[in-house]
Amino acid sequence: MNDIQIDPRGPRFSAFFQLAFSVSALLVGANVGGVVIMAVLLALFIPGAIIGPQATVQGWIFRTAVRPRLAPPAETESFRPPRFAQQMGLTFSTLAVASGLLGWDPGFFLFTGFVTFASFLNSVFDLCLGCEIYLLFKRVTTRATV
Amino acid sequence: MLTRVLIVAAILAVATVAALWWKRRQGMVREVERAGALSSTTLGAQRGYHATFVQFSTPMCAKCPPTAALLGRIAAEDPRVAHIEIDAAERLDLARELEIMRTPTILVLDGDGVVVSRISGAPSEQQAREALAGVPRTGTDYSI
């Protein structure tokens, strides 16, 4: 499969968006407002999880509004690690919305909290949790051949 | 409302502590004692005569390609030093045996293929050079 190189600052910028959404949802709480905010965030994750971070609304804002004002990136990265991270974000926001709809409040806070945790690490500390977890995930889910 | 503000504050505080701890460990070089050596056959590539960087990567790892470029450049300076990159997701047998928990992890081997040190996370150029300098010399600098 063809690799696409992207500006690593794009996913990091997008993570600020995701952080703002998930923090707002936590502050609004497990009610209609919070679930709606997480549902919008869920929708924002979908293109990134299927195609890649270059296809998201957040990525489009970065490309059109932010990137023209920045110097060219010192290095580019593959779209795959951030795409995996978007898939994790999609999973957790889906779980959060589902918990909210089913009226399970602790679940809503737990899963929204995960999204907040990961987006915060990605945006503020440039630490991609999904990328770090990938190998552990693979080790657990693939059976030993020996 | 206060509870929810405290929840947000707690998540951000825990994440900050975790991130600082993780950054501090990044590229840390640790000595390891492991009996037995890794052969070129096991690694699937030719080991270096004096030393080898064995880098474990995955396709999902953002810091792996720049690390590969750095180690490849350092290895290219000395014909007796090799750099081997292994996809840990494909060689899960090796990843399990060598307890590779994250990528990139780099094992520094001496000329006999014995693991001398282990770098977790992307090293800086200085950290990589120090790890290489820490490899004890085995054999001779010449060959007949």
Automatic annotation (TrEMBL), chain A:
Domain DUF4395 residues, every copy: 6-139
One Pfam family it belongs to: DUF4395
Residue ranges crossing the lipid bilayer per the database entry: 12-30, 36-62, 83-102, 108-137
Tagged with keyword Cytoplasm: no
Protein's UniProt name: DUF4395 domain-containing protein
Keyword Membrane: yes
Source organism: Demequina mangrovi
Keyword line: Membrane, Transmembrane, Transmembrane helix
UniProt feature coiled coil, ranges: none
UniProtKB/TrEMBL annotation, chain B:
Pfam families: Thioredoxin
Highest taxon of source: Bacteria
GO molecular function: isomerase activity
SUPFAM superfamilies xref list: Thioredoxin-like
Residue ranges annotated for the Thioredoxin domain, each copy included: 52-127
InterPro entries the UniProt entry points to: Thioredoxin-like_sf, Thioredoxin_domain
Keyword Endoplasmic reticulum tagged: no
Name recorded for this polypeptide: Thiol-disulfide isomerase or thioredoxin
